[in-house]
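CORE FACILITY INTAKE
Project code: CF-77B
Contact: R.S. (postdoc)
Sample description: multi-component assembly, two entities in total
Requested service: structural model of the whole complex
Turnaround: standard
Below are the sequence entries exactly as provided by the requester. Do not edit them.
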Amino acid sequence: MDVFSDSYNLDVYVTGFLWILKLTAAGTVGALVIGTLLAAMRVSPVPVLRAFGTAWVNIFRNTPLTLIIFFCYFGLYSTLGVTLSDDLELNNYWLGVVGLSVYTAAFVCEAIRSGINTVPAGQAEAARAIGMTFRQTLTMIVLPQAGRAVVAPLGSILIALCKNATIVGTIGLMESSNAMKDLINSNGDKVFTIFFIFAGTFAIVLIPTGYGFGWLANRLAVKR
Amino acid sequence: MSDEALIVLENVNKYFGPLHVLDDVNLSVARGEVVVVIGPSGSGKSTLCRAINRLEPINSGTITFDGRPLPAEGRALARLRSEVGMVFQSFNLFAHKTILQNVMLGPIKVRKEKSVEVRERAMALLDRVGIGNQAEKYPAQLSGGQQQRVAIARALAMQPKALLFDEPTSALDPEMVGEVLDVMTSLAREGMTMVVVTHEMGFARHAANRVVFMADGQLVEQAPPAEFFANPKSDRAKDFLSKILTH
């Protein structure tokens, strides 16, 4: 444990997990927003939107996240010159958020779409029958019920997102996996300690998160 | 009841694949009239009812409501639907909303009415159908009969020009049928225009102005209830009545 009593090392550790936290937070928002929009597109009556949603899911769900993150860096930033922040580290962070969001959105979309299938057709019919538009029916009646039905699977997706955030280390952000590599490089005799501390930190945060989502899923479940 | 027609169906045809579910149907419902549609299963009664607010699009023919042809889609169609209440066999109350929210949602979101006024009206309607004390519960906590009465209140909250009932009592336990029919009967007495698809012959007898008998997608016979039940003209209607009225 004395590895972490060194203030520099402790700082590397804390900073690493703070980046993971920030990546997860922004990635969650991005993935939920994009994923919900994609799900709406996939059930919409407009063929172009449906095709767009399907294409997105098929492309991003079947591409390794490492490749997507690389593309954000080498494609968007290096080649196309897309700069999201003047600060180099923040720029890498935001590129990572983009990659995580577009990738995770594909899974969120499919989870919500399966949730939509759990909402009886009569719910949408009743909404249309009182004069709601397609959009009102979707946003007020169908999606709220679909969302409640998929809290547990969404939890799994977000836990995966948190762990996937370590991949942003490949484009130079000093997040936890980079931090771990850094510490192991300079403390070769403490490999196991360092590894278990890092892995343990993920587990300690994510295990309760999983139970939390399970509890939330029960609480929010729509009684029929 | 006036002579002025509120709902007019002319030469309406509808197919489900090769199945001709509505076969050249002509029907006119006057303002304030209560029309009960009966007939064997699969005769197209429900489809007819659902075609009137275009939950089922038709293949040919015209349907006019209050002098205007049914809009095909979009906001115009939504506006028309807001003027035609519908009560479903399976209630279809919004499962994630309380009883009160179910009744208030349409007026607030569709009509953009003020929440305070709508709440008052909604509570009055819930009291009227006898569920005022359950306003904060969720649909799943209510019995079928109670849910269906809420569904009627939800439809009434939109202050519709007509109400469509698609087998409103078919999913109910027998002891709950009466409470729903009571509400429907009182609406009929007050002059609400109603199209009711049902198997409740008692309701047809005492609440309907006219009984419409359908079979195989065709509108076979229509007459005032006393006349229809006493002297059905068509063989199919005689056959149908002999099967249901012998018990």
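Facility notes:
- The mean pLDDT of chain A is 94.
- DSSP finds ten helices and no strands in chain A.
Invoice: internal transfer
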